[in-house]
Design goal:
The chain has 204 residues and is α/β, with parallel strands linked by helices. It has 8 helices and 7 strands; from the N terminus they run H-H-H-E-H-E-H-E-E-H-E-H-H-E-E.
Length: 204
């Protein structure tokens, strides 16, 4: 296990207890990315969420796609424990505690979702994006909502202390690896930072 993986596991060992109670205040766009996903992927059969955490997105994904098979991957045992309890009624669900540095089932997923995960994969975000494209079936959708950037160096430094990188670094690679269907950059807290939403199709 890498040093960064161990650091994140320690971080979420502490934060899992109050994650859902606090993150709603600044992890914007999570509901919107699922709404946009419904427009671009009306009937996926297999959906993977990388960095699924406490299962916050797995529940609305199940409501939107009740017949789909859902799969969640996360490093944190504590976060996955919350996800298992939260998603106890979802029969077609698999949860795995592991790094996402190799495909789970190449070419088999119709959707791979990253929600506020890639900005914390430092290092590893490039590898994770490329791995997602290997897991996607042709025509599958890469979905992403995450921190984008900030014009305030002190804020970026503070976020870095919480393991978040905000350098507008995710969208360029995602748009090179897939054909963009939807992209939007949004301002948060009066311009303190921006976040993005992205949907791209695997075409090759």
């Amino acid at each position: 296990m890498s040093a960064s993986s161990e650091t994140l596991q320690r971080y979420y060992r502490i934060h899992a207890a109050f994650y859902d109670a606090t993150r709603w205040a600044f992890l914007f766009g999570r509901e919107q990315i699922i709404r946009e996903l419904r427009r671009h992927a009306p009937s996926p059969q297999r959906i993977l969420e990388v960095g699924c955490g406490t299962g916050k997105n797995l529940q609305p994904l199940h409501r939107c796609y009740p017949d789909a098979r859902l799969c969640g991957v996360d490093l944190s045992r504590e976060m996955l424990g919350k996800a298992r309890r939260k998603c106890v009624g979802i029969a077609r669900l698999e949860l795995h505690q592991q790094r996402y540095d190799a495909p789970l089932a190449p070419g088999s997923f119709d959707v791979v979702l990253f929600s506020y995960a890639l900005s914390m994969f430092n290092p590893g975000w490039e590898e994770a994006l490329r791995t997602a494209c290997r897991d996607l079936a042709p025509g599958g959708i890469l979905a992403m909502v995450d921190f984008h950037n900030s014009r305030f160096p002190l804020f970026k430094s503070w976020m870095a202390k919480n393991h978040v990188r905000m350098d507008a670094h995710l969208l360029p690679l995602a748009s090179r690896l897939t054909t963009t269907h939807f992209v939007r950059e949004c301002s948060a807290f009066g311009g303190l930072w921006t976040y993005h939403l992205f949907l791209g199709e695997k075409t090759v």
